[in-house]
Design brief:
Shape: globular
CATH class of the largest domain: Alpha Beta
Largest sheet: 6 strands, parallel
CATH architecture of the largest domain: 3-Layer(aba) Sandwich
Oligomer: single chain
Strand order of the largest sheet: 8-9-7-10-11-12
Structural class: alpha/beta
Low-confidence stretches: none
Distance between the termini: 43 Å
Strand content: 15-25%
């Protein structure tokens, strides 16, 4: 974590302070007064319904070494002698502090964005690089304008590689994050349908994701999904930083990094890696990842490409990826109360991600019955009903045996599914508890159940009910 005195921190974030406090030692940064630790700098963020300045005094009593304070807000008499950094805007000062700290570190930064798969890819890259380097990765989904600066400020000066996830909901957000992180390698996993409400079209999403390239270091690498033609089309009209190299990965053989002999199971996938002009693996030594799905094979290719770029051998990469541990609720295999297999993919959903999950179910065999349980996909904009219907119509009896839907929007998903399925194979629910209870009575030990929906639907509660004895 950042370890500087108050004078240094002030210079890094453009703050003013009382000179007598110059030697105060700062070790780490927090924006949560409830979790502040001894020696940290407390940053009081201001929102529509909260003001962190109200908690500065308590944070200092709880051990914070110093705190930021927004100019123009009167300092109470009780804090007149406190070590305060006066700034125009605490959030912007936090971001500037992170940017300055990153510039002082000798660390390789890998920035990752995409509509789907960025957290999984982050975990894969960290697992691959962890065999040879000291790696720090974004915790959970701290990937926004607050979470990313805090992650950068958590880096130790001995860290070799930082794997930073970058999320967004509108234009300009990735640009902000990439200019803080200044990645050496930037990854775009794919372009889906998430945030259509804010960005208007998939072309808009591609433009927003490609903002990550603007912060690349000179002669850095932009590694993007070559199976997505929108990215190549937008790149043709972009000016990139000096000397930036472009590389593609994906399932199509014309990518720089591709896969062959893909075998997908319920809890793992294996594949061979093909690098243009170079053989990375063959049938005798495939790569294996403990997560199912061809889309996850594609994500793993990005991790392998990065590992090879940083000089890691195929053997080490194979070892790192085989021991991969994913952030929860991303095609997480768990067992139901009676032994049935549950695929908990409840973290989030959009049409592209749901189709990938449906394809995964279609690839799996050996089950008595395959169930797909879908919740509403949120923030899809004016075409949300059509997108839900199309998602339902994408499912066929060849891919699954039964479809259960939950929520107001998935009523359209059920309508779409009924164009292919018998009426009794598609059931729509408006109540989560009723769906969970009904399904729990239906599933048998040799069944497979995929559960997926947007974060706001809390579909993991269905998984929890099915797990409970």
């Amino acid at each position: 974590m950042i370890k500087r005195n108050l004078e240094q921190v002030a210079a890094m974030c453009g703050a003013k302070y009382n000179n007598r406090d110059a030697a105060v030692r700062i070790e780490g940064v927090s924006t949560d007064s409830r979790r502040v630790q001894a020696g940290q700098l407390f940053v009081p963020l201001v929102g529509e319904q909260f003001d962190g300045h109200h908690y500065v005094e308590q944070a200092l009593k709880d051990g914070a070494a110093a705190a930021m304070w927004q100019k123009g807000i009167e300092v109470p008499e009780s804090l007149a002698e406190a070590p305060l950094l006066l700034v125009k805007d605490p959030l912007k000062a936090l971001q500037q502090l992170a940017s300055s700290y990153r510039e002082e570190l000798y660390v390789r930064v890998i920035g990752i964005t995409g509509s789907n798969g960025k957290t999984t890819t982050k975990d894969m890259v960290a697992a691959a690089l962890g065999t040879s380097y000291r790696v720090h990765k974004t915790a959970g989904n701290l990937n926004n304008h607050i979470g990313l600066p805090l992650t950068v400020l958590q880096l130790d000066e001995e860290t070799d590689c930082a794997v930073l996830e970058m999320g967004m909901s509108g234009f300009g957000e990735i640009e902000l994050l990439t200019n803080i992180a200044r990645p050496d390698i930037a990854v775009i996993t794919n372009i889906g349908d998430a945030h259509l409400l804010q960005l208007g079209s998939r072309e808009g999403i591609a433009k927003a994701k490609l903002e990550i390239a603007q912060g690349l270091q000179p002669r850095g690498i932009l590694l993007y999904n070559g199976d997505e033609p929108l990215l190549a089309a937008e790149l043709a009209n972009m000016a990139l930083p000096e000397g930036v190299q472009l590389q593609t990965f994906g399932l199509h053989s014309d990518n720089d990094w591709s896969a062959s002999h893909i075998e997908v199971g319920a809890v793992s996938s294996s594949f061979n890696v093909v690098r243009k002009g170079e053989t990375i693996s063959d049938a005798a030594e495939p790569f294996t990842i403990p997560v199912p799905g061809q889309h996850n094979v594609s994500n793993a290719l990005a991790a392998i490409a990065i590992g090879r770029r940083l000089g890691i051998s195929s053997e080490q990469l194979r070892e790192g990826l085989s021991g991969l541990e994913l952030t929860g609720m991303r095609i997480q295999p768990v067992q139901a109360y009676n032994g049935a297999m549950l695929l908990n993919d409840a973290y989030n959903a959009n049409p592209t991600a749901v189709r990938a999950a449906i394809d995964l179910v279609a690839q799996l065999s050996g089950f008595r019955k395959k169930w797909i349980v879908l919740g509403d996909m949120l923030e899809l904009g004016p075409d949300e009903e059509a997108l839900h219907f199309e998602t339902g119509a994408y499912m066929t009896p060849a891919k699954a045996d039964a479809v259960l839907t939950l929520g107001s929007l998935t009523a359209k998903t059920a309508e779409g599914a009924k164009t292919h399925f018998p009426a009794d194979a598609v059931i729509h629910f408006d109540d989560k508890e009723k769906l969970s209870a009904w399904l729990k009575e239906q599933i048998q030990a040799d069944d497979l159940v995929l559960v997926k929906g947007s974060r706001g639907m809390r579909m993991e509660q269905i998984v929890q009910t099915l797990e409970a004895r």
